[in-house]
Amino acid sequence: MKEISINVGEIQFGYAKRYFEEFIDARPKFYELIDKVQTPTLLIDLDGVKAKYIQARYHMPDVNIFYAVKANDHIDILRALSDLGAGFEVASSEELQKVMSLNVRPEKVISSNPVKPLDFIDYAYSVGVKRFAVDSFSEVDKIARVAPRARVYVRITVPNEGSEWPLSKKFGVDVDTALDILEYAKDRGLIPIGLTFHVGSQCNNLRNWFIAIKRSAQLWENAKRKGIKLLVLNMGGGIPVRYMQESLRIEDVAYYVKGLLRKYFPTPPYELQMEPGRGIVGDQGLMVVSVLGKAKRDDENWLYIDTGVFNGLAEALGGIRYPTYLKKEGELKEWVIGGVSCDSMDVIAKNVFLPEPEVGDRLFLLSTGAYTTVYGANFNGFPPPRVICL
């Protein structure tokens, strides 16, 4: 049998090069900027963001889309989505203030964080936002104190296997506990309107959706038998984007979910909701960074850039890998990419294959539109990358 030799470095760099060229070719307005903009800078394609939202609406016409503001809260992104009639999911007073500054109607805003600051609940309710997620009896008590007659939906726990950013440990309850919480909310004077789940951010496992919707249908029927008529099924986020490999598309998830809903909810909920964040903005961002230095340490080649995990690439700590491209040809070498700070945890990626870079060269990090600058701090005196929305 003929042996097949696989060059991992060539495959990785070739993928990043193709992705970069496709991205830039589709966005001629980025051509000059990528070589001239001061680094580090995150470039966001607003037309692409709008196209992703329109895509979601097209493939899920019966679902109300609430953009998860935490993914990227830049005001230009929020304005672009608001102009298209999007709803918004917020978790804090600051996020809500940004959304309300755009004259978004309060009924277009929900809050799905199951544990919220009391002052945020008070503020949200005072401006007309009345729908809140819960997953504990104490949260029901908190809402009842400052937001009487608020609408609440309970979060159930569902599998997050295959999601690159699992969320199942911190939030959510089992079906039986969820029913008890709905009954308790009703007794406290709140209005139980529905349920929610989250399959995990960057979810490429359709089975999570299957179990989540099947489990939701079970709770829906149990609530009905208890005299609680639920109206809203909130299916959270989880729509993935392309990183180091291809991902499920919005239409893939939509097709599968619609089939599950027909099977398990023959009588559709009064309102269906989804909260995409990464799926709307993630692959519409390109981060331009510069090489600050390089070194040989033991058997490893180190490359240092002018941002880091504390300044805008925090998800690298959790395993997210950004396709990284250098506009050079030549023999590929394996690199460890370190961040700008002097903290030893500030390592963005290992096993990155690039031609030999020089100090001052620019690297291009793809799919950096979500959960980058929103995580950024001024640690070690280095600010987050600036953001330019085009």
From TrEMBL:
A GO CC term attached to the entry: cytoplasm
GO BP annotations, alphabetical order: putrescine biosynthetic process from arginine, via ornithine
Annotated Orn/DAP/Arg decarboxylase 2 N-terminal domain residues: 48-281
InterPro entries: Ala_racemase/Decarboxylase_C (IPR009006), De-COase2_N (IPR022644), De-COase2_pyr-phos_BS (IPR022653), Orn/DAP/Arg_de-COase (IPR000183), Orn_de-COase (IPR002433), PLP-binding_barrel (IPR029066)
Enzyme Commission (EC) number: 4.1.1.17
Residues annotated as the enzyme's active site: C342 (proton donor)
Cofactor: pyridoxal 5'-phosphate
Residues recorded as bearing N6-(pyridoxal phosphate)lysine in the entry: K70
GO molecular function: ornithine decarboxylase activity
Keyword terms: Lyase, Pyridoxal phosphate
Pathway assigned to this chain's UniProt record: Amine and polyamine biosynthesis; putrescine biosynthesis via L-ornithine pathway; putrescine from L-ornithine: step 1/1
Reaction catalysed by this enzyme: L-ornithine + H(+) = putrescine + CO2
Protein family (similarity comment): Belongs to the Orn/Lys/Arg decarboxylase class-II family.
Protein's name according to its UniProt entry: ornithine decarboxylase
Species the sequence originates in: Hydrogenivirga caldilitoris
